[in-house]
C-alpha cells in the first residue's frame, strides 16, 4: 500500500511536471508569436516612408485658376507613386475642361489618379455673401465636410501650391493626430514683427500668430462630429466686415476657441514668400528642405519672386507621360540659377533639396 502510494505520488509528480513543462512551452511559443515581427507586406518593403496606399487631395477652382490648379496635380504626380484621388470643386465652365484633361492623364498614368468633380454650391440663404468673401468661391472649402459625406479625410490645398515631395509624407500626419485634433495647418508666421494677425486682425485668431489655411489636413469625419458647418455661417455673418482673408479668417476664429483641435505643421509644408523675402524665417525648410511651396499673393506669376517663378515654370513645362527624370530637376536648377537675385533666391538648397532626394528614390541610378 505504502509502496503503491509512493509510486503513485512519483507518477503524479512526473505528470505534473510534464504538464507544467508542456504549458510553459506553449505559453512561451505564444509569447514568441506576439513579439514576432509581422511578415512585411509588399508596401513596407519598398522605399516609401509609409504603407499608405491612397491619398485624397482636394481643391476649389473658379475663374482663371485652371492652369495653375493643373500644376498642383502635376506636382503631386511628379513626386509620388501612390494612388491619388482628386476631389475638385469647380465652376460650370471649368468642370468639362477638368474632365477632359484628367481623363487623359488618368489613362496616360495607368490609373495612378482618379477624380470626382463637384459644382460649387453655397447655402442659398447667404449665397452672395459667401461668393464675395475673399475670392470667388474660395469659401467653398468650409462646407466640404457636408458636401462629400462619405469621405473620411483629405488634404485641402489652395490652387497656388506645388508639392516638391511625396504627398504620402504629408498624409502621414493624420496618424499623429491625438484624439482632440481634426485638422493640421502651418502657422501664418511665427515672427511677431511681420505676422499679419497680431498686428492687424480685428477678430479672434488661432494662438499668437494665426494659421495659414492654404494647406489643410482635414479629418472630415471628426469635423462632422464637431458640427463644423453649423459654426461657419453665424461666424461669417458676425464678422464679415472684419475678415479680409475670408475663409482663412473664419477658420482662425473657430480654432481660436478650439485650439486643441489643431495639429500645427512645420512651415516647410506651407512655404510662402514671407518665409524668405525678409531673410530666412523657416529654419526647418533650410534644414530639411521645402516640402510644399505656396505662391500666395501671385508669387508664381507676378515677377516679384523669381525663385518661386523658377520652380513653377519647371513644373508647368513638365508634360504628364514624359520621363521627368530627364529634365525636371535640371530645369528647376537652371531656372533658379538664371533668376535675378533675391532673398528667397539665396536659399537654393532649401528649394531643391526635397525634389532632388525624392527623384533619387523614384529614379535610382542603375546598379553597376
Ligand atoms: C493655360 O495653358 C494653355 C495650354 O498650355 C495655354 O494655351 C493658355 O494660354 C494658358 N492660360 C493662361 C491663363 O495662362
Ligand atoms: C479620422 O477620424 C476618424 C474618427 O476618429 C478615424 O476613424 C479616422 O481613421 C480618421 N482618419 C484618418 C485619415 O486619420
Ligand atoms: C522684432 O523687432 C524688434 C524691434 O525692432 C527686435 O528687437 C526683435 O529682434 C525682432 N524679432 C524678431 C523675431 O525678428
Ligand atoms: C492634442 O494636442 C493639442 C496640441 O498639442 C493639445 O492642445 C491637446 O490638448 C491634445 N489633446 C489631447 C486629448 O491630448
UniProtKB/TrEMBL annotation:
| SUPFAM superfamilies noted in UniProt | Nucleotide-diphospho-sugar transferases (SSF53448)
Q: Which species is listed as the source?
A: Spodoptera litura
- Keywords for this protein: Glycoprotein, Glycosyltransferase, Membrane, Signal, Signal-anchor, Transferase, Transmembrane, Transmembrane helix
Q: What EC identifiers does the entry list? A: 2.4.2.42
Q: Which domain of life is it from?
A: Eukaryota
Write down the chemical reaction(s) this protein catalyses: 3-O-(beta-D-glucosyl)-L-seryl-[EGF-like domain protein] + UDP-alpha-D-xylose = 3-O-[alpha-D-xylosyl-(1->3)-beta-D-glucosyl]-L-seryl-[EGF-like domain protein] + UDP + H(+)
- Give the GO cellular component terms, alphabetically: membrane
In the record, biological process GO terms are: protein O-linked glycosylation via N-acetyl-galactosamine
Q: Which family does it belong to?
A: Belongs to the glycosyltransferase 8 family.
Protein name per Swiss-Prot or TrEMBL:
UDP-D-xylose:beta-D-glucoside alpha-1,3-D-xylosyltransferase
Amino acid at each position: 500500500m505504502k509502496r503503491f502510494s509512493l509510486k503513485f505520488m512519483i507518477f503524479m509528480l512526473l505528470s505534473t511536471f510534464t504538464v507544467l513543462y508542456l504549458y510553459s512551452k506553449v505559453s512561451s511559443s505564444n509569447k514568441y508569436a506576439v513579439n514576432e515581427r509581422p511578415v512585411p507586406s509588399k508596401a513596407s518593403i519598398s522605399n516609401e516612408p509609409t504603407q499608405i496606399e491612397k491619398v485624397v487631395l482636394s481643391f476649389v477652382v473658379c475663374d482663371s485658376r485652371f492652369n495653375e490648379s493643373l500644376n498642383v496635380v502635376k506636382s503631386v504626380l511628379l513626386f509620388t507613386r501612390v494612388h491619388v484621388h482628386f476631389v475638385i470643386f469647380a465652376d460650370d465652365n471649368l468642370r468639362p475642361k477638368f474632365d477632359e484633361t484628367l481623363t487623359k492623364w488618368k489613362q496616360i498614368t495607368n490609373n495612378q489618379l482618379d477624380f470626382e468633380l463637384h459644382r460649387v454650391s453655397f447655402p442659398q440663404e447667404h449665397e452672395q455673401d459667401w461668393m464675395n468673401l475673399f475670392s470667388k468661391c474660395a469659401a467653398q472649402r468650409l462646407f466640404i465636410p457636408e458636401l462629400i459625406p462619405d469621405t473620411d479625410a483629405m488634404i485641402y490645398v489652395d490652387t497656388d501650391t506645388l508639392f516638391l515631395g511625396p504627398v504620402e509624407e504629408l498624409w502621414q500626419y493624420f496618424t499623429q493626430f491625438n484624439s482632440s485634433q481634426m485638422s493640421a495647418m502651418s502657422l501664418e508666421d511665427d515672427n511677431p514683427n511681420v505676422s499679419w494677425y497680431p498686428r492687424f486682425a480685428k477678430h479672434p485668431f488661432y494662438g499668437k500668430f494665426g494659421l495659414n489655411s492654404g494647406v489643410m489636413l482635414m479629418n472630415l469625419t471628426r469635423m462632422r462630429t464637431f458640427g463644423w458647418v453649423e459654426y461657419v455661417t453665424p461666424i461669417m455673418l458676425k464678422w464679415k466686415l472684419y475678415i479680409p482673408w475670408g475663409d482663412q479668417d473664419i477658420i482662425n476664429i473657430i480654432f481660436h476657441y478650439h485650439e486643441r483641435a489643431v495639429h500645427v505643421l512645420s512651415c516647410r509644408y506651407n512655404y510662402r514668400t514671407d518665409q524668405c523675402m525678409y531673410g530666412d524665417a523657416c529654419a526647418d525648410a533650410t534644414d530639411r528642405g521645402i516640402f510644399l511651396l505656396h505662391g500666395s499673393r501671385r508669387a508664381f506669376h507676378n515677377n516679384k519672386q523669381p525663385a518661386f517663378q523658377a520652380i513653377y515654370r519647371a513644373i508647368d513645362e513638365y508634360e504628364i507621360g514624359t520621363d521627368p527624370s530627364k529634365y525636371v530637376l535640371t530645369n528647376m536648377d537652371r531656372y533658379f540659377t538664371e533668376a535675378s537675385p533675391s532673398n528667397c533666391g539665396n536659399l537654393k538648397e532649401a528649394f531643391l533639396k526635397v525634389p532632388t532626394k525624392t527623384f533619387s528614390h523614384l529614379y535610382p541610378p542603375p546598379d553597376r
